[in-house]
Amino acid sequence: MKRLVAGAAALAVAGLGMARWAASRGRMPAAAKDPLESSRWLGITINRPPDEVAPGGHLPEPLSRVDAEVRMNRAPGDRGTEIYARPREQRAGADGVLARLRGEDPRTGIRTALRETKSLLETGDVLRSDEEFETTRPTLPGKVLDMALGRAAEGGRL
């Protein structure tokens, strides 16, 4: 019993120490760390040569429908093509964070277009994970899952 109490106390002290350490780091929002985030290039590597990615200099359909600057390079070691894109309209600071929360950030459309381009060129189809699932009754976890799947292509690492 003494071991159990001693172990619980040690865990509590370690948890408090970690919480205090995290609070002392003074975490700042990502926008405050990097006000130029909205002007950074988003990139992907496609396992296809450049002449198959953009035949005749024409961009793939998902990328041609977004308003973005696009550049392409041959990937190192002949491993395909690197495509980089960034929005022509650039927002800085808190306005960019608020726009992303409202779903108005131009980078989300570019992220989606890059993902669709990669999927289309490598598999021949745009793969989706958001199939409609039927349940007997809607639940809170189901609503959270539906919301996450609806915004899955907009964020995360490319």
Structure, described:
- By secondary structure, the protein is an alpha+beta fold.
- It is 46% helix and 12% strand.
- It is built from 7 helices and 3 strands; from the N terminus they run ααβααββααα.
- It has a 3-stranded antiparallel sheet, with helices on one face.
- The model has no long low-confidence stretch (mean pLDDT 76).
What would the keywords be for this entry?
158 residues; alpha+beta; three-stranded antiparallel beta sheet
Outline:
By secondary structure, the chain is of the alpha+beta class.
Topology of this structure?
Blueprint: H1 2-24, H2 30-33, E1 42-46, H3 50-53, H4 61-64, E2 68-74, E3 81-87, H5 94-102, H6 106-123, H7 140-150
Antiparallel strand pairs: 1-3, 2-3
| N-to-C order of helices and strands | HHEHHEEHHH
| Uncertain spans | none
Total number of beta strands: 3
Count every helix, treating DSSP H or I runs of 4 or more residues as helices.
7
Radius of gyration: 22 Å
Note the main sheet: 3 strands, antiparallel
Instruction: Tell me the strand order in the biggest sheet.
Output: 1-3-2
| Average pLDDT rating | 76
- The first-to-last residue Cα distance is 50 Å
Indicate the structural class: alpha+beta
Beta-strand share of residues: 5-15%
Helix content: 40-55%
Q: Sum up the overall morphology in one term.
A: elongated
